[in-house]
Amino acid sequence: MSDNDRYVVNHPKGWAVKAGGAERASSVHDTQREAEGTAKQVVKNLGGGEVRIQGRDGKWRDSDTVAPGNDPCPPKDQKH
């Protein structure tokens, strides 16, 4: 886990962007798509890393490497 990584998680007021190990959200958004966009922009501004997205059921449903991050499985990650 990098200091640049961010997580999109379910929040009582919508969807939150959180840093790893943080108790409080960096930002809260009405939609998961807005939170994902913000998380990717933050990670990009920090120099790259991972964005992990939580589903409504609380399980991790997706992750995306933001350049110039180090993607551990580049041949398999062709969704983004």
Explain the overall architecture:
It contains 1 helix and 5 strands; from the N terminus they run βββαββ. With 80 residues, the chain is of the alpha+beta class. The protein has one domain.
Which properties best describe this structure?
80 residues
Sequence stretches where pLDDT stays below 50 over 5 or more residues: none
Count of spatially separate domains: 1
Structural class by secondary-structure content: alpha+beta
Total strands: the figure is 5
Fold blueprint:
Layout: E1 6-11, E2 14-19, E3 27-29, H1 32-45, E4 49-54, E5 60-66
Parallel strand pairs: 1-4
Antiparallel strand pairs: 1-2, 2-3, 4-5
Short description:
It contains one helix and five strands. With 80 residues, it is α+β, with helices and mostly antiparallel strands. It has one domain (6-66).
